Q: What sequence folds into this?
DNA sequence: ATTATTTGACCTAG
DNA sequence: CTAGGTCAAATAAT
């Protein structure tokens, strides 16, 4: 049996794959002129495979979803949902495609990209759903645990002020989701150092980590050190309107570069599958503020 | 029932 | 050996 948590988690993976695909497209696009045919082929292969995988995965998810909710009206709508999501996620990319492939007012380019994949949903490809979904089964119990190497790329240190508002001043909140995995007393520091890693480390090897250390002299300030940039595309939405920086950078030293996407994939999954209980609310098709 | 945090053990570079 | 970083089992939170 599948829980809904599981499914929306799977949805996250699908969205991540799509993001990755789009990234590949962009990178190909920017280096298109000076690309030798061989490497062009390689790039295209990779892109096709990425989207194809996402397509397969999405098909399975929809099969599951449809079989679990006796209702059946999702299919025609999915395309527009995908479009809507893409517009939210990558307006820039959409625009590019409109210009290039002569779309009209609606998002033709991207629509075309996805139509092929999503139409296939109707084709009722009977697949072994269970096999692919519950893959993470038993493995060799004694893996000689690989140890971390030294120096994992860039490093960025930021000083942030603790929140003055009332209570515990501990969690400075950037726009990523972190999972604490350790805490250590540091020699010569009055306060412990906390270790976090990206929550979506599982969504294939997102290496992002951070350390949070309260300053000795100024307990109202934290030193946050970031290591590795996110390869997951699941930043929590920094909505343009809600510019409430709960975290105030005082100063920063940067040696790296990171990409931020506008909307969390997690939220995408919620749009499509809802975050609530099982089999409820088929209105997930429309935006939250839909009048109806 | 799943996901997150806590915390001592464990690991590795120096 | 020590110090800092990470793992993972127990525990808490949702």
A:
């Amino acid at each position: 049996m599948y829980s809904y948590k599981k499914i929306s988690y799977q949805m996250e993976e699908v969205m991540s794959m799509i993001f990755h695909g789009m990234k590949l497209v962009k990178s190909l696009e920017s280096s298109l002129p000076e690309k030798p045919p061989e490497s062009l082929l390689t790039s295209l292969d990779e892109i096709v495979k990425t989207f194809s995988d996402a397509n397969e995965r999405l098909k399975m998810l929809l099969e599951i979803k449809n079989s679990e909710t006796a209702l059946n009206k999702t299919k025609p709508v999915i395309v527009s949902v995908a479009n809507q999501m893409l517009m939210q996620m990558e307006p820039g990319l959409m625009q590019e495609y409109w210009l290039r492939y002569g779309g009209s007012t609606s998002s033709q380019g991207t629509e075309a990209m996805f139509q092929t994949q999503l139409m296939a949903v109707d084709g009722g490809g009977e697949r072994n759903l269970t096999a692919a979904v519950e893959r993470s089964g038993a493995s060799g119990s004694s893996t000689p645990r690989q140890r971390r190497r030294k120096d994992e790329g860039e490093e960025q240190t930021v000083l942030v002020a603790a929140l003055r508002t009332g209570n515990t001043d501990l969690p400075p909140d950037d726009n990523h989701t972190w999972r604490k995995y350790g805490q250590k007393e540091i020699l010569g520091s009055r306060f412990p150092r906390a270790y976090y890693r990206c929550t979506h480390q599982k969504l294939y090897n997102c290496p992002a980590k951070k350390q949070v250390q309260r300053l000795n002299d100024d307990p109202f300030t934290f030193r946050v050190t970031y290591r590795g940039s996110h390869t997951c595309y699941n930043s929590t939405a920094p909505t343009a309107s809600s510019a409430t920086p709960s975290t105030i950078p005082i100063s920063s030293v940067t040696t790296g570069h990171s990409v931020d996407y506008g909307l969390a994939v997690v939220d995408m999954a919620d749009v499509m599958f809802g975050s609530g209980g099982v089999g409820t609310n088929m209105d997930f098709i429309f935006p939250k503020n839909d009048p109806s």
